[in-house]
Amino acid sequence: MCRKLSTVQLTERLDYSNLPGLNSNMKNGSLKEGTLNWEMLQFKPKFPRQVLLCRVGEFYEAWGINVCILVEYEGLNPFGGLQSDSIPRAGCPVVNLRQTLDDRTQSGYSVCLPSYQSMSTCC
């Protein structure tokens, strides 16, 4: 159950017909083959209980339901704010990754770090 209003608002933008909760009707929600969203859609079932963070440039980003977990329990802010018409996204700069991982694992979560190029690296 979500306690933060921001997380409740983010959950309203999810599509529960797929495991990551990606809504293809929203801006940046394309699930076409070859897109990062499609890759995450293929990858999430392999690690359904882990929070997925994927490196995109100088950030590690999460999408969909993973964002709700990071906002609710880690205090991260969603990209684009709460009034956005795009899929929920949040993340951290590469330089903050160690602290984010430490916080997540100390809270009892497992984190998976797939590479966009390989979608194969997890810890």
Radius of gyration from the alpha-carbon trace, in angstroms:
13 Å
Strand sequence of the main sheet, in spatial order? Answer: 2-3-4
Number of domains: 1
The backbone outline, from C-alpha atoms, is: globular
CATH class: Alpha Beta
Mean pLDDT across every amino acid position? 84
What is the CATH fold-level name?
MutS, DNA mismatch repair protein, domain I
The profile of the biggest β sheet is: 3 strands, antiparallel
**Helical content (DSSP H or I, runs of 4+):** 25-40%
CATH superfamily: DNA repair protein MutS, domain I
Q: Unreliable runs, pLDDT <50, ≥5 residues? A: 119-123
What CATH architecture would you give? 3-Layer(aba) Sandwich
Structural class: alpha+beta
Q: Please count the helical segments.
A: 4
Order of helices and strands: HHEEEHEHE
Assess the beta-strand content as a share of residues.
Answer: 5-15%
